[in-house]
């Protein structure tokens, strides 16, 4: 089995967290948070990260409520972001359910570093870790 490098994004209108992982290990690590204005990041920053890490696939968290129902504005914006990633960089992009990723991320960070670890950028990147590791689990059934 060859290993693929995958970058996941936790989309937000003000900040977009990212994480990187390999499907051979099924683990992910926080990467960086990209500032955004109304959901639009600095595309040059994203391009630099993609050039540095050379991912084979991108995964974007798809917001949903606790019952799996799409959230009107933010889900549409996350899908638009995913489409723009694919269009700009030509990489395959998959959407993945991100229900409760922020809650899990906050719990993980708090257990590692207490309240000081709960900065916005840390939470967004840890949410991307949760999304990517959940995506890995879904691939392996």
From TrEMBL:
Entry-linked SMART domains: YqgFc
Enzyme Commission identifier(s): 3.1.-.-
Family annotation (InterPro entries): RNaseH-like_sf (IPR012337), YqgF (IPR005227), YqgF/RNaseH-like_dom (IPR006641), YqgF/RNaseH-like_dom_sf (IPR037027)
Gene3D superfamilies reported for this sequence: YqgF/RNase H-like domain
Subcellular location: Cytoplasm
Keywords: Cytoplasm, Hydrolase, Nuclease, Ribosome biogenesis
YqgF/RNase H-like domain boundaries: 4-105
GO MF annotation, one: hydrolase activity
Matching Pfam families: RuvX
Family: Belongs to the YqgF HJR family.
Protein task: Could be a nuclease involved in processing of the 5'-end of pre-16S rRNA.
PANTHER family named in the record: POLYNUCLEOTIDYL TRANSFERASE, RIBONUCLEASE H-LIKE SUPERFAMILY PROTEIN
Protein name, per record: Putative pre-16S rRNA nuclease
Organism: Vibrio hippocampi
